[in-house]
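STRUCTURE:
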C-alpha cells in the first residue's frame, strides 16, 4: 500500500450487481487485514443520507435535472470532506459504490447536462480526489432494469424505503446512461476497467479481483 491509501469505485447501470460485488470485495480486503472504508454515492455520511432521500424518493418526480446534479455533488462534497479524503490521507483503502463517473453517465449523458459542466462541479466539490481504479460492471440496460425492478418489488413488499426514482426513468434514459459509461471506459481504459456483469457472481468477483489485486 502507498502512504496515501487506495481508492476503488464501482460503477454501472441499475441492476448490474454493484452492491453484491462491492460487498464481496470489501470482505476479501478486510480478510487480508486491510483497513477499509466502505461508502456510497449518494449517501455515505449522515448528511449525505438525508440528501439521498430527496434524490431517490419516487415521489420527487418534479426534481429538475440541474437541481438533481447539484444535490449529487453536495452529497459527494460532504463525503469527500468528512470521510474519503481523511481515509486516504491515513493510508486506508476506500471502496465506494459510485462516484463522479455516475454523474457523468446519468446527469451528463442521461440528462444531457454535458460532461464539461459535470467536471467543473467535480472540481469544486471533490477538488483533486478521484478513484485510482474504477470497476465498471457492464450489462445490457434492459436486463439491468429487469433486475432492479424485481429488487424494488421485493423491497416494496417488505415495506422498505422507496428509492426507485432513477429506476423509473424511461428506457431511453437508461440506454443513454450505458452509452455514457461505455464512452468513459473507452476514454480512460487505464483507470476504468470494464467487466461483463452478465456472468455468474463468482466469475464477476474473480474478474474484479484480478484488477484490484495488483494494487493491494
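SEQUENCE:
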Amino acid at each position: 500500500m502507498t502512504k496515501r491509501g487506495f481508492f476503488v469505485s464501482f460503477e454501472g447501470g441499475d441492476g448490474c450487481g454493484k452492491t453484491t460485488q462491492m460487498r464481496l470485495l470489501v470482505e476479501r480486503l478486510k480478510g487480508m487485514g486491510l483497513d477499509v472504508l466502505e461508502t456510497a454515492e449518494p449517501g455515505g455520511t449522515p448528511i449525505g443520507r438525508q440528501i439521498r432521500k430527496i434524490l431517490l424518493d419516487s415521489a420527487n418526480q418534479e426534481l429538475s435535472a440541474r437541481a438533481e446534479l447539484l444535490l449529487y455533488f453536495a452529497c459527494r462534497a460532504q463525503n469527500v470532506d468528512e470521510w474519503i479524503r481523511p481515509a486516504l490521507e491515513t493510508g486506508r483503502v476506500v471502496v465506494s459504490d459510485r462516484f463522479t463517473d455516475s454523474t457523468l453517465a446519468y446527469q451528463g449523458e442521461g440528462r444531457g447536462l454535458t460532461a464539461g459542466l459535470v467536471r467543473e462541479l467535480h472540481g469544486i466539490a471533490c477538488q483533486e480526489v478521484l478513484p485510482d481504479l474504477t470497476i465498471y460492471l457492464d450489462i445490457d440496460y434492459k436486463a439491468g432494469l429487469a433486475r432492479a425492478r424485481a429488487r424494488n418489488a421485493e423491497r416494496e413488499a417488505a415495506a422498505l424505503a422507496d428509492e426507485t426514482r432513477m429506476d423509473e426513468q424511461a428506457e431511453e434514459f437508461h440506454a443513454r446512461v450505458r452509452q455514457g459509461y461505455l464512452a468513459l471506459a473507452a476514454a480512460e481504459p487505464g483507470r476504468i476497467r470494464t467487466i461483463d456483469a452478465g456472468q455468474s457472481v463468482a466469475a464477476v468477483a474473480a474478474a474484479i479481483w484480478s484488477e484490484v489485486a495488483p494494487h493491494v
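REMARK: The first strand starts at residue 6 and ends at 12.
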